[in-house]
Amino acid sequence: MLKREFKINLKSFIIWTSISIILFLVSFLVYPSIVNSESSANLNEMLKMFPKEILTMFNMDISNINTVFGWFQTEGITLFLLLVCLFASILGSNILTKEESEKTIEFLYSKPISRNRIVTSKLLCGTIYILAIILVVTLFNLIGMYLSDSLEFKKFILLSLSISFTALPIFYLTVYISSYFNKIKKTIGIGLAVVFISFFIQMISMMGKKIEWFKYLSFHTLSDSRNIIKTAEMDYRFLIISMFLSLMFIILTYVKYNKKELV
User: Fold this and answer.
1) Which residues have CB under 8 Å from 145's CB, separation 6+?
2) What are φ and ψ of residue 131, in 5° steps?
3) Higher-confidence residue: 121 or 100?
4) Per-residue pLDDT averaged across 79-104, rounded?
5) Phi then psi for 102, rounded to 5 degrees?
6) pLDDT over threshold 80, residue 64
7) Contact present, 68 and 149 (Cβ < 8 Å)
């Protein structure tokens, strides 16, 4: 069952991994030529004109973007997180529902396979693919940044690892949401909305002290990139929250799917 899931979702994994690698490859090739000594000074002057809130949104107030690794700490990690979360949400939205949408659920029920086994294989497959895309892109980025300029290895690893704290809960949530539907078209839209709403809530929370509490409504806060950039340390409270949310959505998925009337 698990082998079947890997085969079915392999194409999606390859596409999203390739997109991520290509985007970072372009950055590694182009960025060093853009940020030379002259343009670097102009860039710093331009950044001074931006509102503090905008700089905070992309960590530009605490990171120097004159190097590739500096760029990674700002726009790069935001891009990496968004890509993995989009992959996680789309995968979570269809990995369970497509069996009913494509009428292959009848084949599964012709076999001695329980509903719990179906859910387990799909959750395990999705989890492995999400961790795999993070690992593959991280290794590629590691090589790229090592060749481009100086690299703060500990910060880089922590930033990359923290992406899973957001991506996995989003995956499990979208799987749970999809258990209420029978058509992929409905679930993918909801899954994408979860990612973008979470992303924009986090961005909004950085626009002032009065609305800073908004960040507690966003999955993206769990990645905690600002704290990692500042201290080179991980706040394990976010790991615990991520694990708790993941476990909660997993349990809810099993409960709901076992009660669901399948067509």
Assistant:
1) 28, 68, 69, 72, 151, 156
2) -65, -35
3) 121
4) 85
5) -100, 5
6) no
7) yes
